[in-house]
C-alpha cells in the first residue's frame, strides 16, 4: 500500500502519449506515408524534396558573405586586427618555443616553467597539485614534445584571456540590458551547437591560415559559457549585498567592480574554467587549418597510423587538460587570504616570491647546464615505436582479432547498416512528422513547433540524406552509450566509494580532447562505421554515467527510508522511488550525451564517413562559406531539436516532483 502511494506521488504526469490526439495524428500521418511508400503509391516529390524546390541557400549566403567581406570592407578591418594579433602571438611564440620575433628573448627553459607551475599548484592545492602541475611539464619535456606543446600553449595563453574578457563584457551587458540578453541568448545556443568546422572556414578567410585564424576560432568558440556564467552569477547576487553597497554611497562603476563582480566570483571563475577547457579543445582541433602544435602532430601521426606516438601525444594533451582543469577549479574554491595589519610584505607574497625565485634559479642554471634549457632528440624518453609494436602484437592476438572481427561484422551487417538504410528509405515528410511527434510528446507544444521548423529547414537545405546519416550515427552511438552508461551509473551509485571513483573517472574523461577517442576506435576496428560509432559511444557515455550517479545520489534520504519501511526490495525501491526522482537529472545527462555525440560525429569525419562532417571537412579546402554554413546549420538545428525537447521535459518533471 505504502509503495503504491509513493509511486502515485512520484508519477503525477504519468504519460501524455495515450491520450493526446495531436500526437497520434502526427504519428498516424508518419505511418500512413511510410505505408504508402512501401506500396509504391507515394509520389516521388513526397519521398524526397525535388531539386527544383530546394532553394540555393549556399549561393545566397555566399553572396551575403562576399558583400560583407568585399563591398563593406570587413576583410580590411579583420586583416588590420590580424596584424595586431600576430604581434601578440609572435611574442608568446618567441617566449614559449623560440620563434625568432620580438622580444627575441625566448625560449623560456622548460625547467623554469615547470618550477613556476609547481609553486602555483602548491599554492592552489598543496603537494598533489604541485606534482600534477610540475610533473605535467616535466613529462612533456622528457617525452620529447616540448616544442609542439609550447606551440599550443603560446596560442592558448592569448586566446583564453581574450575569450574571458569578451565573454565577461557581454555577460555584464546581458545582465544589465534585458533586451540585449533576449537577443544574444539564441545566438549563444546556436554557437554552442555549431560544429567546430563552421568556425574554422570564416576564421581562415578573414584572418589567414595558421595561428592567427586558430586563435580567432578558439576565442569565438570559448565565449558562450563565459557569457552565460557571468549573467547567471550577477543575477544571483543577494539584494542585501546590493543594498549595503548603495547605502555606502558606491557609484555605478563601484557597484559593478566592488559589489556585483566580487559577489559573482564563483560563477565567473567557473566560466573561466570552461573557457580554458574549450580553448584547449579548440586549439587542438584548429590543426585542420594549419595551426601547429599538439593537434597538428596528433593529426599527422594518426593519419600515418603511428598509434604509439599518437598515444604519447594524447597522454600529453590529457595531462595538460587535467592540470588546467584542476588548477582553475581550485582557483574557484580558494578564498582570498587575509593578513593582520603589519604583516611583512614577503610573508603576504611568499608564494609569488617562491615562484619568481624558482623561475630565476632555473633560468640561470639553464645557461650552464644544457639539459635544463632543452632536451634534444637523443635525450628524450619517447617510446612511440615500442608502443606501436606492443599495440600491433596485441591486436594480432588470435583472441583479440576474433572478438573485434566478430563485433565489426555483427554491428555492421546486422545492426548499423540495416538501421542506416531503413532511415534513408523513410520518406522525408514521414521522418519529419516522426521527429515532431517525438519532440511534442516529450517536450510539449513549443519544442514540437521548433522541431517542425528546424527539420523542415534541414529537408529543404539540399543535404537531407547526409543529415540522416549524421543522425543515424548519433542515434546508434547514444543508444549503445545508454545501454552501457546508465547501468554502470546505477551500479556505482549503490556505493559511496564507487560513486566517487566513477565521478572522478568521468571528470577526467571530460577533460580529454575529442581526438583521443578516435585512437582506441581505429586501433580496434580500423576505418569503418563501427569505429565511428565506438568513438562517439565512449565520448557520450561520460555524461550519461555521471548524471545517473548524481541523480541517484540526490534522492532525499526520507524517500528511500519510506520505501524501506514499506518493505520494498532493492529492485522495487530503485524502480519506484529512486529512478523516478533521479530522472530529471538523468535527462540532463541524456541531453548532454546527444550534444556530445553531434560534436563528436564531426570529429569522426577524420576516420572517413559519408555524413555532414565529411562535407564540412571538404569545405576547408576552398572558400565555400555558404555551403559550410548550411552544413553547420543542419547539425546545429538537429542538435537544438533534441536539446529543447529533453530540456523542456526535464523542467516539467522537476516541477511535477516539486524539485524547483
Mean pLDDT: 85
Shape: globular
Q: Give a count of the beta strands, DSSP E runs of length 2 or more.
A: 0
Return the structural class. mainly alpha
Oligomerization status of the protein chains: single chain
Q: Helicity range of the residues? A: over 70%
Q: Measured on Cα atoms, how large is the radius of gyration?
A: 27 Å
Reported for the largest beta sheet, the result is: none
State the end-to-end distance.
28 Å
Strand content: under 5%
H/I helix tally: 31
Low-confidence stretches: 1-17
Q: What is the gist of this entry?
A:
This protein is an all-alpha fold.
Protein traits:
660 residues, 31 helices, globular
Describe this structure in words.
It is a single chain. By secondary structure, the protein is mainly α. Helices cover 80% and strands 0% of the residues. It contains 31 helices and no strands. Helix 16 packs across helix 20 and helix 21 crosses helix 24. The longest helix is centred in the last third of the chain and has 34 residues. The radius of gyration is 27 Å and the shape is globular. The N terminus is likely disordered.
SSE diagram, text form:
Layout: H1 2-10, H2 21-38, H3 44-47, H4 57-71, H5 74-97, H6 110-125, H7 127-142, H8 146-176, H9 178-193, H10 196-207, H11 211-235, H12 239-247, H13 252-263, H14 265-285, H15 294-303, H16 307-333, H17 345-348, H18 350-368, H19 370-373, H20 384-396, H21 398-425, H22 428-443, H23 445-459, H24 464-493, H25 496-510, H26 518-525, H27 529-553, H28 557-565, H29 570-603, H30 612-619, H31 625-656
Helix pairs in contact: 1-29, 2-22, 4-31, 5-8, 6-7, 6-18, 7-16, 8-9, 8-11, 8-14, 9-11, 9-31, 10-11, 10-31, 11-14, 12-13, 14-16, 15-16, 16-20, 21-24, 22-23, 22-31, 23-31, 24-25, 24-27, 24-29, 25-27, 26-27, 27-29, 29-31, 30-31
Amino acid at each position: 500500500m505504502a509503495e503504491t502511494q509513493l509511486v502515485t506521488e512520484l508519477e503525477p504526469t504519468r504519460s501524455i502519449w495515450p491520450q493526446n490526439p495531436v500526437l497520434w495524428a502526427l504519428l498516424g500521418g508518419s505511418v500512413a506515408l511510410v505505408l504508402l511508400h512501401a506500396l509504391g503509391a507515394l509520389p516521388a516529390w513526397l519521398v524526397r524534396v525535388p531539386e527544383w524546390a530546394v532553394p540555393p541557400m549556399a549561393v545566397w549566403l555566399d553572396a551575403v558573405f562576399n558583400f560583407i567581406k568585399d563591398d563593406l570592407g570587413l576583410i580590411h578591418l579583420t586583416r588590420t586586427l590580424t596584424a595586431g594579433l600576430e604581434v601578440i602571438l609572435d611574442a608568446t611564440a618567441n617566449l614559449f618555443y623560440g620563434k625568432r620575433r620580438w622580444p627575441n628573448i625566448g625560449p623560456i627553459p622548460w625547467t623554469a616553467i615547470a618550477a613556476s607551475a609547481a609553486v602555483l599548484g602548491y599554492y592552489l592545492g598543496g603537494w598533489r597539485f604541485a606534482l600534477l602541475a610540475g610533473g605535467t611539464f616535466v613529462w612533456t619535456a622528457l617525452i620529447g614534445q616540448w616544442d609542439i606543446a609550447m606551440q599550443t600553449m603560446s596560442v592558448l595563453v592569448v586566446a583564453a584571456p581574450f575569450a574571458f574578457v569578451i565573454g565577461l563584457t557581454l555577460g555584464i551587458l546581458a545582465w544589465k540590458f534585458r533586451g540585449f540578453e533576449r537577443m544574444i541568448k539564441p545566438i549563444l545556443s546556436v554557437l554552442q551547437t555549431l560544429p567546430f568546422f563552421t568556425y574554422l572556414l570564416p576564421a581562415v578567410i578573414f584572418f589567414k591560415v595558421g595561428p592567427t585564424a586558430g586563435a580567432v576560432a578558439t576565442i569565438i568558440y570559448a565565449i558562450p559559457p563565459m557569457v552565460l556564467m557571468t549573467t547567471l552569477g550577477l543575477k544571483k547576487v543577494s539584494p542585501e549585498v546590493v543594498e549595503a553597497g548603495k547605502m555606502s554611497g558606491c557609484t555605478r562603476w563601484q557597484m559593478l567592480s566592488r559589489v556585483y563582480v566580487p559577489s559573482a566570483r564563483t560563477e565567473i571563475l567557473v566560466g573561466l574554467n570552461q573557457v580554458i577547457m574549450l580553448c584547449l579543445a579548440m586549439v587542438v582541433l584548429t590543426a585542420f587549418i594549419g595551426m601547429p602544435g599538439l593537434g597538428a602532430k596528433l593529426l599527422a601521426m594518426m593519419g600515418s597510423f603511428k598509434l604509439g606516438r599518437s598515444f604519447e601525444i594524447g597522454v600529453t594533451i590529457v595531462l595538460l587538460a587535467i592540470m588546467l582543469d584542476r588548477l582553475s577549479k581550485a582557483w574557484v574554491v580558494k578564498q582570498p587570504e587575509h593578513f593582520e595589519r603589519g604583516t611583512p610584505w614577503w610573508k603576504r607574497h611568499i608564494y609569488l616570491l617562491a615562484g619568481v625565485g624558482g623561475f630565476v634559479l632555473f633560468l640561470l642554471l639553464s645557461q650552464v647546464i644544457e639539459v635544463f634549457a632543452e632536451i634534444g632528440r637523443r635525450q628524450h624518453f619517447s617510446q612511440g615505436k615500442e608502443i606501436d609494436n606492443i599495440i600491433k602484437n596485441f591486436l594480432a592476438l588470435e583472441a583479440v582479432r576474433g572478438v573485434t572481427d566478430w563485433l565489426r561484422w555483427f554491428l555492421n551487417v546486422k545492426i548499423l547498416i540495416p538501421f542506416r538504410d531503413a532511415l534513408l528509405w523513410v520518406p522525408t515528410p514521414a521522418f519529419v512528422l516522426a521527429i515532431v511527434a517525438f519532440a511534442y510528446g516529450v517536450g510539449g507544444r513549443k519544442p514540437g513547433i521548433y522541431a517542425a521548423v528546424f527539420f523542415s529547414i534541414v529537408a529543404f537545405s539540399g543535404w537531407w540524406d547526409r543529415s540522416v546519416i549524421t543522425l543515424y550515427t548519433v542515434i546508434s552511438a547514444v543508444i549503445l552509450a545508454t545501454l552501457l552508461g546508465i547501468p554502470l551509473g546505477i551500479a556505482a551509485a549503490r556505493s559511496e566509494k564507487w560513486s566517487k571513483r566513477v565521478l572522478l573517472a568521468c571528470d577526467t574523461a571530460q577533460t580529454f580532447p575529442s581526438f583521443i577517442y578516435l585512437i582506441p576506435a581505429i586501433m580496434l576496428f580500423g576505418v569503418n562505421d563501427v569505429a565511428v560509432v565506438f568513438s562517439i559511444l565512449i565520448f557520450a557515455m561520460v555524461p550519461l554515467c555521471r548524471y545517473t550517479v548524481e541523480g541517484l545520489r540526490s534522492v532525499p534520504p526520507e524517500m528511500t527510508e519510506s520505501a524501506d519501511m514499506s518493505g520494498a526490495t532493492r529492485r522495487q525501491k530503485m524502480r519506484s522511488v529512486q529512478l523516478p526522482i533521479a530522472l530529471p537529472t538523468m535527462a540532463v545527462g541524456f541531453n548532454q550525451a546527444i550534444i556530445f555525440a553531434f560534436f563528436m560525429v564531426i570529429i569522426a569525419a577524420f576516420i572517413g564517413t559519408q555524413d555532414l562532417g565529411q562535407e564540412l571537412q571538404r569545405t576547408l579546402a576552398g572558400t565555400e562559406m555558404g555551403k559550410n554554413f548550411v552544413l553547420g546549420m543542419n547539425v546545429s538545428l538537429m542538435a537544438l531539436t533534441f536539446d529543447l525537447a529533453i530540456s523542456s521535459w526535464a523542467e516539467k518533471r522537476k516541477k511535477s516532483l516539486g524539485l524547483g
